[in-house]
Task: structure prediction
Amino acid sequence: MTLAVTARAAAADEREFRDRIDRYRLAHEAAIVRALDELTRFRSVAADPSGVAAAADFLAAALRTRGFEVRLLSAGAHTPPLVYGELHASHARRTVMFYAHYDGQPVTPSQWSSDPFIPVMRSAAVNGAHEIDWQHAQPPFDPEWRLYGRAASDDKATIAAFLAAFDALRALHRPPSVNIKVAWEGEEEAGSPHLAQILDENQRLLGSDVWLIGDGPVHQSGRPMIYFGARGVLGLRLTIYGPVKALHDGHYGNWVPNPAAMAATLIAQMRNQDGVVTIPDFNDAVRALTSAEREAIRDLPPIDDQLKREFGIAQAEGSETWASSIMRPALNVRGIRSGMTGEEAANAIPVDAEVSIDFRLVPDQTTDELRRCVEQFLRNRGWTLLDAPPDMAARLADARLALLEWEPGYPALRSDMSSPVASAIIRTARRAAAGPVALLPMMGGSVPLYLFAQRFGVPVIGLPIVNHDNNQHAANENLRLQNLWDGIDVYAAMMALLDW
Amino acid sequence: MTLAVTARAAAADEREFRDRIDRYRLAHEAAIVRALDELTRFRSVAADPSGVAAAADFLAAALRTRGFEVRLLSAGAHTPPLVYGELHASHARRTVMFYAHYDGQPVTPSQWSSDPFIPVMRSAAVNGAHEIDWQHAQPPFDPEWRLYGRAASDDKATIAAFLAAFDALRALHRPPSVNIKVAWEGEEEAGSPHLAQILDENQRLLGSDVWLIGDGPVHQSGRPMIYFGARGVLGLRLTIYGPVKALHDGHYGNWVPNPAAMAATLIAQMRNQDGVVTIPDFNDAVRALTSAEREAIRDLPPIDDQLKREFGIAQAEGSETWASSIMRPALNVRGIRSGMTGEEAANAIPVDAEVSIDFRLVPDQTTDELRRCVEQFLRNRGWTLLDAPPDMAARLADARLALLEWEPGYPALRSDMSSPVASAIIRTARRAAAGPVALLPMMGGSVPLYLFAQRFGVPVIGLPIVNHDNNQHAANENLRLQNLWDGIDVYAAMMALLDW
Result:
């Protein structure tokens, strides 16, 4: 055969592969959605340890049924287990670790249009959508339908796609091209406090040639996406103290320090109006982008105008594109609360102000160094840092009192976009999609990629599948069905076509 | 008689007068406290119009019983009435109007140690105090006891003192030295939205030679106080808009504008860390203090260190004394709310931020001019001002959207401290107290003094009686009994000794 004939044959084989996966999916849409629905019903959020444990048992059984060797790896009796599974393929040279998390963000049910843990199918995004009785609908389903529920997309959709893709390959008698390992984490949304320990204690078991991370959304253009890193994260709760009791702001306003105003000033000092963190030394460790990374960003489909229309914003915070912005570190104000507003507002100086912040880190910032910068900045501005609420003596000794509660956090990672495995994955993803794939050097959101990279010394590459407009981390989280279908295609390809 | 003999005789008469009032009070302590307790039980707050109406009827009856001609003056069927009463004294040359308000600030019952409308007597300030069954206690009561309840001090204590003083004079057959008028307002804590109309419609009825205002606390040193004005007030609710839905702050933080950070920046731009309002033109109309006013401030007993200890603050906001600080205009942040804090915080960019502000005005600032300054400042900073929440078109058209909701407000007033009536009142108060009286050119808190001054062209002078540490406008408002007793002394003197 000539090279051209080989290429044509390979292309035909790939089309055939994709068609067969799609036919399998078409014949099993109801069962696949039912599996995701079932998984979403588990209350696997940090506030509900028994819900997390039940989900882990369910997933372990799902893997065992499919012939995986399974273990629940945990850091202690009452910590959420990591569901580990492995399946050896004959003749495979490489081992791929498929990572996702099965826990979800906390919920504020009053903000949801329906119960976060009783999935509801809707015809489109929640406003103006109608509910669909999909259990009695005739497949094929409208691919624009969305399943609403906490973690339905982040990351339970990835897990559902993986299992459906595996089932499709088995039904088609298509052997895996790689050894398959699975690591499904149960406390990613809580900051992965025990993941390092679990990885350390199971380093041999968890060895592979690449970690493939199923967390995060695809590109906002709808194009399939691969990402090569993610920003790190570090949360901080800051409480600023005013007078020991609320005081009439007519009699004492201008003289008694106002903690709401102090908190506002502090935020404005830490971050300018372009979203640039202005804390001294904060940006010192920021690693410059490589030319390949800059090129990848340039090649991304333009989506800024679309996002602005979707989010209802006239302008971005700074002058950069979305993709360039998220290559920088961020200081996000997640919340601020002091005194009362609206009808309940009284003419009083509040007793304190609470500010909830998360920092997003980029390589090579470390959480320790960032904490040091923030604390040094506060001390230089005259703040006394507390680790417990002040007593009267502390209040009388120092004028600016701030209680700092740091949350667990972790650094960022950017993997090399040009390594052999990265190239193989890009190639395979393009085949599965039969089209272009967006390449993002680093996600804006955080997943603890550095933990895998640090310990295993292998590339860590992201292969998300869910829609970007999924209300991730907010109320009315949802998964668009077409993204689940595309996810099955790409995960099937990674299990049956990937090699390098 | 020589002058010295006359003076001695007058002094003896004054001592005798005070002693007789005190003896009356000692014999009637339980009944006087019971009257205040009864008055405090009326839920006369803006949120409860029927509670306000019931309190007005009760007060009207209390005046009628004492021989007053009484009218309820209101601006319409469903607005809180002003309770008006008058009593002519034979041979009196002057008419004194006694003003107070019988409505209270809104309550947040969860913040109170007991029901705001079921008064409780405690041995001292609320922490560490024990409850006292005063109804079964043997008078005389401990003068350090405090009665807890909304409006128990602000201003129902003034009303109770006035009525008890009047009863004492009648029991002692002491005729009034002035014609007495009473104006007890029912919506002062709501910003007195109808007071101007009521005054306009009853201008002849309400004529007098001086308005004596029973609102506010005495000096923090405990010394009796007269004030000659009060800062004005203007409330503003500001809502700042972010994205139309909450967005993952990892994926979009740094690019999607964060309304909490925008609100913080805005506050920091409007007000510096010394509490000085930095809005351009805002301070242009501020009238300088006269030398008499500066002298009065210098002569006040020093109380700053005492206040700091009481409030648990190490430093004041600026470098001035408390009394000097409140001669300046203020921008108070009453509350701020955006996103979630604490355990409920999610990694999301909030959809909006609410800021509740009140401005405290000084002469000759006007509310119109102040509104203009604030709005011009916002426009100059690129804000688009809204009077309703933005629709999608408005969101896409302008980057900085702020909904402004101005509350009703009014300007400040400072009366001449050297007028004949001011001198007579100072003299009479010193006699009632048998000691020095603190003279404050202007209270920090707001009462609508300007309304009286503007219409009636007579001095408006404040004669407060309640303890400064009364938790006014906050939870656990309370009245210290000794302040009620002192209030009876001074109000009796104003009714029976005042003349000029």
In short: Chain B is about 35% helix and 20% strand. The domain at 232-290+327-406 of chain B is CATH 3.30.70.360 (Alpha-Beta Plaits).
